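Q: Could you fold this chain for me?
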Amino acid sequence: MPVDVPAAFVGLARTLRAAGVDASPDRLGATVEALTVLDASSRDDVYWAGRLSLCASPDDIERYDRVFAAVFDGVVPMPAAAVEPALRVVPPLGVPADADTEGDGPARHAAASRLEVLRRRDLADLDDADRATALALLTPLSLVGPTRRSRRTGPAPHGPVDRHRTLRRTLRAGGEPVPPASLRRRQRPRRVVVLVDVSGSMAPYADAFVRFAHATRRARGPRTEVFTLGTRLTRVTRELSYRDPALASAAVAAAVPDWSGGTRLGELMKAFLDGWGRRGMARGAIVVVLSDGWERGDAALLGAQLKQLRRLAYRIVWANPRAGRPGFAPLAAGMAAALPYVDDLVPGHSVDALVRLARTVVGRHA
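A: Sure. Below is the predicted structure, expressed as structure tokens.
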């Protein structure tokens, strides 16, 4: 499909609500979740993902069919007189309301091109409207994986002999010889701990980083913990449990008293290790730090805390929005002190950079 699916579904949901269909944010979230399993490039998969999650009654199906065709195909398969007066087709994000969206015209290509440009642009350079569009593109991020071996075992086609299951098979067979049952250690998802810098220097990126943390929380559930770093350390895991990313972001903003203030990364990293990290939260986890590395306190303290965290964590991934700029070098005192203990230093300045960060977190480098 030539349409940007996540962006188009936002327009689809708006149009369905205008047509009287209860396409709530929760239902839209279910659609996005379904598309992480289905083939988002297949029109049929996209159609059925939306129809099964956005339609609540048989009356909604006819309206859904018309709106889906209008948003994804650029045509309305009925005479205009048959469309309810309340129905107003909203084109995908980035297309002007009066643009010609029929067929493969220039408006559709312009919309796709604009979204691609937004994905690559530095979030600090966007106005409010473009920033809202860019944040919407972060909603379907998928962070399924990685896993670690558990102490518990389970059935397997090959491996060591499971004596108990083999004995039970033998008893059921009346003592006759049976193929031995095998077992292997089960796989458990690794915990992901996200530390989001919400200081003043990170103000242009903090909202996008919170959206990234929300997508991580939605994908991995209770195996995700999120903290903000400002003048104090704030645990916001509960606030990010809302399905709607806008509600989750609002809850985080209300819970964090030091948004766009100062930060002392070393002291806050020590507070995290003393309060949660050494007690097991960081042990074997993937720790994702979203910060520009500007340290107003003792940079040596930050280095010492990262060194201790490195002994506990499975991997430390640091996303720095400054790393996406030409000629970047980790010269900031905090970044330089932390760098020896970081496994991956990646950019975090744009939507595409955050998508690559997600792939790095799950072990698929791009």
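A (continued): The two ends are 23 Å apart (CA to CA).
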